[in-house]
Write a structure and sequence with these properties.
This is Putative ABC transport system ATP-binding protein. With 221 residues, the chain is α/β, with parallel strands linked by helices. The two termini are 25 Å apart.
Amino acid sequence: MAIVQMEQITKHYRMGGQRFTALQHISLEVQQGEFVAIQGPSGSGKSTLMNIMGCLDTADSGTYMLEGRRVSAMSDNQLADVRNRRIGFIFQNYNLIPSLTAYDNVELPLIYRGVPANQRKQAVLETLESVGLSGHLHHRPAELSGGQQQRVAIARALATNPSILLADEPTGALDSHTGKEIMALLAKLHAEGHTIILITHDQAVASYADRVLYIRDGAIA
């Protein structure tokens, strides 16, 4: 089953009065259970593609079907619901709330979703244990290493049981050893059945995926 189906996706921006093409005629599919890497240099369009995949931005033309639903036909509320329930985001700089503990950061999207307290507690404890952080529930981000913060971010993404884990340069802020640990964790999650789409400029990181798509100058190379 194809979770992501994109046909002829194009995106333009205006910068300094000039029109800039970020994506041109992108067509791709991602099947349920796949681990796909989208690799390209800085400025290639991969972050724009990730934003459209994650329903954080919209294409100017083309068709994006997510789990069989046309994204362009969704209302703002429906898009927000998709981002909260169907897509688990993992960012380069973690995007954790500094004043909250690891437990609270993972719990937050479940609160937004309206999950009852007892179910939230079970989901938070299970996901933090799955990423090896059951002993750091009450630590705030400043009290954790970079690798531990990224594990919290992965647990937060997993807690809502999403259809897709969308990882944008997940090792970009980490040293090489810690980066390998995070990629090993993502590989483990894939082996457990999770669908993962990874955005990266790093060939070594992309090599963990089953399939690599190369993007250059806004097009699949």
